[in-house]
Design brief:
This is Major facilitator super MFS 1. It holds the Pfam family MFS_1. Residues 17-414 form the Major facilitator superfamily (MFS) profile domain. It is found in: Cell membrane. The chain is mainly alpha-helical. The chain folds into two domains: 2-201, MFS general substrate transporter like domains (Growth Hormone, Chain: A, Up-down Bundle), CATH 1.20.1250; 225-419, MFS general substrate transporter like domains (Growth Hormone, Chain: A, Up-down Bundle), CATH 1.20.1250. The chain is built from 16 helices and no strands. The longest helix is centred in the middle third of the chain and has 54 residues, at 142-195. It is globular. 46% of the residues are buried.
């Protein structure tokens, strides 16, 4: 009788944490997707208006990543506020920032809006989402939960892209920015106020290894070094350097795949199919990537990511014009999207320990920001100067170095902490 009661209690606790994942999916699908995924729809009407040139508009992608360089400073807010209020603060800042695009009169104001929107996004997703999942999934399952929650951003694209097109036709770009910015606040803030919280002590479920029946132990958790100690650890900075460099290759593939396929003779209809394939692959990649992290740790998923990214760059460089093999590029990129979504949230604590995990994640996030912010611009600029093939080969070399440093640091970190 007691055993049946315990099982029922455990199931109730699990249902609560799965409900929290569902709430996070909703926040990613609407507020996050609005803040991060819809600018491509805005680029043409804004640049045609003459308020900002097309080149000036693309600078938003760079300026929008600048706040990530201050992740360690932003992370200190978690010692002062409850997670619920951090979400509310982030959603409000992001909503006001996105709406302010509609009031901008020049490139400087547009870039200020981008910085404001990204600060809000850091507060309600980049740092907060991994911290939430860490509290609700202290044992196995954090990677999977992260992957499912992050997949909400891809899911939101399915319905928000056509909604944005309709809004642009009826409200113009200024009205669309304001309406969507208001939606971030109107939808996101109530969700955060009503549901976002850390679990109570009696609500925590520490999952045991799913491989227990096979005699395989769960992966060990460890504290690792403190933030100050970790700053003096050269292995950590080698790891960060590897993250930045591998982002050059990963982000170049994800952002340039469709334009390159267009150069390679894909007609608009085929480009549309390629875009849809990429969206579906991203959904699968986020969830499957989270599972990989949970089951295998950080090393094997990064090996898979490296092979997939290099294969995509080789196809981009050498595929025959119009060849269907080009569809492998969005497939490879989408399936390994976890490299830039779940990985920066999962790997720091997995490789370097849970102690001061928020600060470790914030500093690794800085490296990701550096790599992600300039790689699309560099790829486009370099390919226009030296050609597509030479540019792809250059980014393959950079990617190999980046993955090599990342994997080397993981091996050395494992040895170091095993000795301790």
């Amino acid at each position: 009788m007691q055993q049946a009661t315990d099982v029922k209690t455990t199931n109730v606790k699990r249902n609560k944490r799965y409900f929290i994942v569902f709430i996070c999916v909703l926040i990613q699908a609407i507020p996050y997707c609005i803040a991060q995924n819809l600018q491509s729809q805005m680029q043409t009407p804004v640049s045609q208006s003459g308020v900002v040139s097309e080149i000036g508009f693309t600078l938003l992608y760079f300026s929008g990543t600048l706040p990530a360089l201050f992740n360690p400073a932003i992370a200190k807010v978690y010692d002062k506020l409850k997670i619920k209020y951090i979400y509310v603060l982030g959603l409000t800042i992001a909503g006001l920032g996105f709406a302010s695009y509609g009031l901008a009169q020049n490139a400087i104001m547009f870039n200020a809006s981008a910085i404001c929107t990204q600060i809000g996004t850091i507060l309600f997703t980049v740092l907060s989402l991994p911290i939430m999942m860490d509290h609700w999934f202290p044992g196995e399952g954090k990677g999977t939960a992260l992957g499912i929650a992050l997949a909400g951003g891809s899911l939101g694209n399915v319905f928000l892209q056509p909604v944005t097109v309709n809004l642009l036709a009826n409200l113009g770009w200024r009205g669309t920015y304001i309406a969507l910015g208001a939606a971030i606040i109107i939808i996101g803030v109530p969700l955060a106020l009503l549901f976002i919280r850390f679990p109570k002590s009696d609500e925590v479920v520490v999952a045991t290894s799913s491989n227990k029946s096979n005699g395989k132990p769960a992966r060990a958790k460890f504290d690792g070094l403190s933030d100050k100690e970790n700053d003096k650890n050269p292995i950590f900075w080698i790891f960060c350097a590897g993250c930045a460099l591998m982002c050059f290759a990963v982000v170049s593939v994800s952002t340039q795949a469709i334009p390159v396929l267009g150069q390679k003779g894909f007609e608009p209809a085929k480009l549309g199919v390629a875009g849809s394939i990429f969206g579906v692959a991203c959904l699968i990649g986020n969830v499957a990537g989270g599972k990989l992290f949970d089951k295998l740790g950080s090393f094997v998923p990064m090996v898979i990511s490296g092979i997939s990214t290099i294969a995509a760059l080789l196809i981009m460089a050498f595929m025959p014009n119009g060849s269907a093999i080009g569809f492998l590029v969005p497939i490879c990129s989408g399936l390994t999207v976890y490299t830039i979504t779940s990985a920066p949230a999962f790997m720091p604590a997995d490789v370097f320990g849970q102690k001061d995990g928020t600060m470790k994640m914030a500093k690794v996030g800085m490296s990701y920001a550096l790599g992600c912010s300039i790689s699309p611009l560099l790829f486009s600029t370099i390919s226009s100067k030296i050609g597509l093939i030479a540019s792809c080969i250059l980014f393959i070399v950079v990617g190999v170095v980046g993955y090599g440093l990342n994997l080397y640091a993981q091996i050395q970190a494992k040895k170091m902490f095993a000795q301790k």
